[in-house]
Amino acid sequence: MQFLIKKCIKDYEQVDKREVRERYGTFVSIISIICNIVLATSKLIVGIFSKSISIQADALNNYSDVGSNLATLFGFKLASKHPDTDHPYGHGRIEYISGLIISFLILLVALQSLKESVMKIIQPEVIHFSYLGIAVLIFSMLVKFLMAKMNKNIGERIHSTSLKAASQDSYNDMITTFAAMIGMLVSHFASWNIDGWIGLFVSFIVLKAGYDVFKDTVGPLLGQAPDKELVEGIANLVMSYQGILGIHDFMLHDYGPGRSFVTLHAEIDCHDDLLEIHDVIDLVEREILSRFNVHATIHMDPIDSTNEMINELKGKVIEIIKKINPAYTIHDFRLVSGPTHTNILFDVVLPPEDETNVIELKQKIDQEVKQLDKNFFTVVEVDRAYY
């Protein structure tokens, strides 16, 4: 496979490029289409002559895989299109939509197979045993194993959810083919006609595979949480630069593989030279793009890190917040003093699943802070963590 990749895919090592990803997707899709057509046709012939519904169901599953491969092929082609006026972030999410189409095809075949299996349980037919049929099924399992490895390795190499889903689907096909072979063997050597039940089992496995593919492709379309390793990698990189004291409001937007954008706020000392720290921020944004292939926009938040009174008061407010909920954090802490009262301004960050009433939370924080000094007034903004 590595030999074929080197011969067939130009610039195969530059997997972050859209055109290279398209070549990988086209390469895998064409090989998968050829394999699935050969397997489906051979199994359908064996299934018809042996009157095995489980083998026929497995053959139909392979034909649905051909449709899935075509959807993947066109998905890669369309996803690689250059951004345009209507789609300035590119067309990368088409790859997720192609995965969604694949899941519907798998579910459709599974439901059809389920119906036929139930009919076979009600009205069973004699299965004709054939060593050729067994050989075809063993050959099919071997090919599916190699296809699963190919899709998994290349899917991980180019970070493709659709190829990873295709890999899992191939592994599921191995199980269904093995189940069909068991049904034929048991029918021949033990005279137990369990073909309908095996077909039922196969149908449920295919249903599960379709559901898994559906879930994996819907997640990115809805906006799932970013990969923790990616978030930690970017955060550690930003914090490694001198002059950056902290980060918050981290948001990662996924517009398809290789088309991610991150925005975050970086806390800096308000006494630092503005031009120097702006130069640092520029370097950080460039390195994030270079190392993680993610376009970054960083907002600078100036804070007074040397004021002892502010730091002491901030520590007391953090204690109040942690008593309310240890999972809460704060940022952008600052004071605005006046002749009659002092405004304490800060943001409170809540976990995504937190359903606390925001108005009641602000009132509780204000009451607790007033116990420190009745002239303190809080101006609190409530944020949500996105990772």
How are the secondary structure elements laid out?
Elements: H1 2-8, H2 18-50, H3 53-79, H4 94-122, H5 131-158, H6 161-189, H7 195-222, H8 228-239, E1 244-254, E2 260-269, H9 274-292, E3 294-303, H10 308-324, E4 329-337, E5 342-350, H11 358-370, E6 376-384
Parallel strand pairs: 2-3, 5-6
Antiparallel strand pairs: 1-2, 4-5
Helix pairs in contact: 2-3, 2-5, 3-4, 3-6, 3-7, 4-7, 5-6, 6-7, 8-9
Keywords:
three-stranded mixed beta sheet, about 375 residues, 6 strands, Alpha-lytic protease prodomain-like, about 65% helix, elongated, single chain, alpha/beta, Alpha-Beta Plaits, 3 domains
Describe the structure.
This protein has 387 residues and is α/β, with parallel strands linked by helices. The protein has 3 domains: 2-222, Alpha-lytic protease prodomain-like (Up-down Bundle); 228-303, Cation efflux protein, cytoplasmic domain (Alpha-Beta Plaits, 2-Layer Sandwich); 308-384, Alpha-Beta Plaits. The protein has 11 helices and 6 strands. Strands 1-2-3 form a 3-stranded mixed sheet, covered by helices on one side. A 3-stranded mixed sheet has the order 4-5-6, covered by helices on one side. Helix 11 (358-370) links the parallel strand 5 and strand 6 (376-384). The longest helix is centred in the N-terminal third of the chain and has 33 residues, at 18-50.
